[in-house]
Amino acid sequence: MLLIESLFLQCLAISIGACIGSFLNVVIYRVPAGLSILHPPSRCPHCLRQLAPRDNIPIIGWFLIRGKCRYCHTPVSWRYPAIEALTAFLFWSVAAYFGTSVSILTLCFYAAFLSWLLVLALIDIDTMTLPNSLTQSGLVLGLIYQVSLASLGNGDRLAFPSLLLFGIGGAVLGIWLLDIMRISGKIFLQKEAMGGGDPKLAAMIGMWLGWQNVLLTLLIASAIGTLIGAIAIITKDLGKQQPIPFGPFLALGGAISLFFGKSILSVYLGWFGLT
Q1: pTM for this one?
Q2: CB under 8 Å to 39, separation ≥6 — which residues?
């Protein structure tokens, strides 16, 4: 019975994830452009014709129109179905990894957190910016998550303030550490080494995951960023002076910390006999 419930939950997560991914495509395109994400309905950015319902079917719709607008035949980027498929994978990962060990509400929060990370990472890749509207709304949603987590706790009076401070402490630590890194980089390199949105993204991640996991996130992001940057320079894909967005590495670090943070920290502390 549990296996059937798990499989049903995973199939449902894939379906919902693909649909949410379709909406995330809209957010990724419209937010940096300063456009409403609600109006007008989905349309071709070239001929401005509103898309038919069959064209909006997640993943499948792109193949039905053979990667071209049905009306003006302008090529439609493969990235649209790829983002829908990636979102479906992330939602499935949440359902498969956490399963019934947490509440449905918590699963929904985890899926929302990963959606925010995905959107911010892709916008940063496209525009080298992390919109305040998204980092701030993600921070608020993280606060709501912490409040709901405390409210649904075991009834311990200390649960609410401790969990709330856990999230707020993570947010404060995240923005402080990234600000220190940004200012230090500017002093030693005599130029902006990091954008102003990165500390805000770190604060958002800290609100969701707490101070321990925001430290782990920064460590993972820095390690991956350094490795990718070195490889890009060695292979001459990037010039030494060409900026690399740090947001995607923070997002990847946050996602890894969500799934494996407890295990990684437990192993680390075990080395020092602290577990």
Answers
A1: 0.90
A2: none
